[in-house]
Design brief:
59 residues, rod-shaped, mainly alpha, single chain, 75% helix
């Protein structure tokens, strides 16, 4: 005898699986980890500080 399947549940599971695979693909393509973003921000801040440190003050 065949198993009874709720089609609405199957459709929702298929939609979740498709959305998850698309999200994983986008994360691999565009995403950066939090550590990478923070490291980039720290490098930019240090570069700005270093540049400001070399300014000459003309009064």
């Amino acid at each position: 005898m065949a198993e009874v399947v709720n089609l609405r549940t199957v459709k929702k599971q298929a939609a979740r699986k498709a959305a998850r695979s698309e999200a994983d693909a986008n994360a691999a393509k565009f995403g950066r980890t939090r550590a990478e973003r923070e490291a980039e921000a720290a490098r930019a801040a240090k570069a700005a500080r270093d540049l400001d440190a070399h300014r000459r003050d003309f009064d």
